[in-house]
Write a structure and sequence with these properties.
The complex is a heterodimer. By secondary structure, chain A is mainly α. In chain A, α1 packs antiparallel against α2 and α2 packs antiparallel against α3. Chain B is an all-alpha fold. Helices cover 63% and strands 0% of the residues of chain B. The chains are: A mainly alpha, B mainly alpha. Chain B: Belongs to the complex I subunit 6 family.
Chain lengths: 99, 265
């Protein structure tokens, strides 16, 4: 098997995540799809690292994970706050800046 | 000798190929389930499965540290945080199937398909000829190699990351913390408000106090045998998780009345 297949898998997962962000209306699931896209990018980075024989790709993937952790914390806090004020986690309902 | 090593690095072992095709299928199915499942909990669990498969792929590709971190941080911390929020938010938050933009779903699916074709065709066209493998880079240990890079070449990014994490922690606290602006209502005030509004003065009816069922998911019955919706917690009602035994017990009562009538004759 050619290791490039990992890149194809990564592209496929990224695509599924992107389509999910466009299709779903529930903010939590949209957020999960964003996480899926980040993970797909990480897989590509790790594969590139193996391809080029140095560890820089893995470092970038590591930083992506840290940023994803920070993003999840803030994003979920925002979702919880919106849910408190609007009693809905749908992205369509949060169409106004003010309640 | 040189030709053999290049060949070994260019194609993977049969074991890895089998692992890739089996687990790759699982990963894609998990991703599809994440997008297509109706309930947020099922989506979260599918995504956790996909992430574990990705961790195995990292381990197979020589990224040992990242493989472990993927399991600990992603499936261990981030997905559990998702599950907590699903518990807080997603109980009654079923996805509305009403489209606000007409045909948006199909357009989005089409756009996704086009994007995927473009991405995969791009990779297929790229001339990826040499595959070096991590044997040399991992010679002194994967963790040691990463550490020496993080603390030399990427030390500035690493420090910025610390600032980012602190900002995120404070941001989450600021966003979710609520300052109480008025005093908490006392019991007397609550009682007075109940009487003034006159909606439900008495306490709510208790759930399922029958001879057979005494569980919170069994609604209490009103004197005429119909179900009292108020007796089941709104969370269970929202999930549709209550057992309606009214028809059954009404039939039983009717039968009993009939028998006692016959006995008295």
């Amino acid at each position: 098997m050619n290791p490039v297949n990992y890149l194809y898998l990564s592209a496929l997962l990224f695509t599924i995540g992107a389509a999910g962000v466009l299709i779903r209306r529930n903010a939590i699931i949209v957020f999960m799809c964003v996480e899926l896209m980040l993970n797909a990018a990480n897989l590509a980075f790790v594969t590139f690292s193996r391809m080029h024989g140095n560890l820089d790709g893995q470092i970038i993937a590591f930083f992506t994970m840290v940023v994803a952790a920070a993003e999840v914390v803030v994003g979920l806090a925002i979702i919880v706050t919106i849910f408190r004020s609007r009693h809905s986690a749908s992205v369509d309902d949060a169409s106004l800046m003010k309640l | 000798m040189n030709g053999v090593t290049t060949l070994a690095a260019y194609t993977t072992s049969t074991g890895e190929a089998v692992q890739f095709w089996v687990l790759g299928t699982v990963a894609v199915l998990g991703a599809l389930a994440t997008v297509l499942m109706k309930k947020a909990v099922h989506s979260a669990l599918s995504l956790a499965g996909t992430m574990i498969v990705l961790a195995v792929f990292y381990l197979a590709q020589g990224a040992y540290f990242l493989g472990v971190v993927q399991i600990v941080v992603y499936t261990g911390a981030i997905m559990m945080l998702f599950l907590f929020v699903v518990m807080l938010v997603g109980i009654t938050a079923a996805d509305s199937l009403k489209e606000t933009l007409k045909g948006q779903r199909w357009l989005a699916a089409g756009a996704g398909l086009g994007f995927g074709v473009l991405l995969i065709a791009g990779i297929a066209n790229a001339s990826i000829k040499n595959f070096q493998g991590l044997g040399q880079a991992n010679a002194g240990g994967n963790v040691e190699g990463l550490a020496s890079l993080i603390f030399t070449k990427y030390v500035w990014a690493f420090e910025i990351t610390g600032a980012l994490l602190i900002t995120a922690a404070i941001g989450a606290m600021v966003l979710t913390h609520r300052e109480r602006t008025e005093a908490r209502a006392t019991q007397r005030e609550l009682a007075e408000r109940r009487v003034r509004e006159g909606k439900q003065i008495t306490p709510l009816p208790a759930p399922g106090v029958y001879a057979r069922n005494n569980a919170v998911d069994v609604p209490g019955l009103l004197p005429d045998g119909t179900v009292s919706e108020l007796s089941v917690s709104p969370t269970l009602r929202g999930r549709g998780q209550y057992r309606d035994v009214s028809a059954e017990s009404v039939a039983k009562v009717a039968e009993l009345e009939q028998r006692s009538e016959e006995a008295s004759k």
